[in-house]
């Protein structure tokens, strides 16, 4: 059954991450050079403190421009701090439900608050495909 397939079996472990004190322009550069639209923000101990997205970058630029301030700042000023997460033992069907209900592209995977990976909608589709193909052959 698909419920037996866990997030840790398909999550991405090698992630682009930011710290809260990362300059906004560095985040913009990373997003412009890599095929990602968001990245977890961690503290020095590896605990998840937020997520920075392309939209957060745009919000930061517009906010500063609107207030006639110099564009800049840090990831911590503009990141999203209310982040949906899953535990590594969560089954892929439960995660698929979260994707549908919350409209997210990716969900950080944490163990006791520490970031251990990230699962995307594509990861879930790959897991379903692998499971079905295993049953077919």
UniProtKB/TrEMBL annotation:
The CBS domain covers: 11-69, 79-135
Mind listing the UniProt keywords for this protein, alphabetically?
A: CBS domain
This protein is called CBS domain protein
Q: Which organism is it from?
A: uncultured marine bacterium Ant4D3
* Lineage per the UniProt record: Bacteria, environmental samples
